[in-house]
Amino acid sequence: MTSVDQPADPSTPLGGPEFAPQRTYLNTSACGLLPRRTIEAVTRLAEETAAGRAEGAGSFDVVDEARAAFARLAHVTPDRVAVGSSVSVHVGMVAQSMPAGAEILFPEGDFSSVITPFTVRGDLRIRYAPLERLADEVRPDTALVAFSAVQSADGRTADLTAIRAAATAHGARTLLDATQSAGWLPLHAGEWDFTVSGGYKYLLCPRGASFLTVTAEAQDALLPIHAGWVTGEELWVNSYGPVRELARSASRFDEPPAFLSYHGAARSLALLEEIGIERIEAHDKALAARFRAGVAGLGHPAVADDSTVVGVPGLGDRADALREAGVLLSARAGNLRASFHLYNTTADVDHALKIIAG
Question: What share of the chain is helix, strand, coil (3-state, %, to 5)?
């Protein structure tokens, strides 16, 4: 049995024997650790493939298990979720669906995969604003506001309520990147026209699993530019010639699934459901608050926020030394970035602080 039945306590990891990090791992914003059950599912499918068994081809039913689990975590129905391989592919569909000349508003310094699919077109009007002023910068001619819920570089969280209200007031569509938040921060995907969530960070999925949500109202505005045989309303009748009828749901935007990734994703998402996102949020934020207080006490105040992603300006050059001491963090935009998740404990925080101090 895992520790999912234990009371929330940041000195104790959530997930119990599902995780066994051999170092102090504070780097989930780069890549999450895989649960034991996920590794077993991927290994099982790989062995079936190697043995030439029919099951080795992978299961669309398991892909739909992952789709449904993500839908529950995102508070939408499964028909609003498309599966794919990466955030940039999802965003690329949105970018290619925008009319020429449309204004796209981004926060300054947001993650490249949110921005670049739009800038490479060359015929869109691109505008940037400070994250804290993003809602104020939405205008009547803004076609789309695209932004990350949590900034990769420093952990700042966007004012979701204000941005959503401003977009609604001006008739702008919204694209929310939840890659740095889904898995620890509750996601209500139906509040946004489009959301994208890379699975390999806080959702604990293998690389190659990524999720797109589309509201029913926004679906007709999105062009399925990579439509193929898996995007049909009936799965097994579209192998030859054009797809007869695209799926009526968001499945019309599916990519052919990477089955190894999705067999693992179904197990990872099930674990997150068992533990509960609200419980994970409380655990992660408590650790992040302890780390912020600790680095401030060492004379290195962190970026002010209550995110589980913590950026410490000016300490990015310490990442290599910390790695050599067995503490994995990241250097991003000059910041030392620590990121906490369910497998971390107060002992991890205190060990990292000791190394920074020494």
Answer: 45, 15, 40
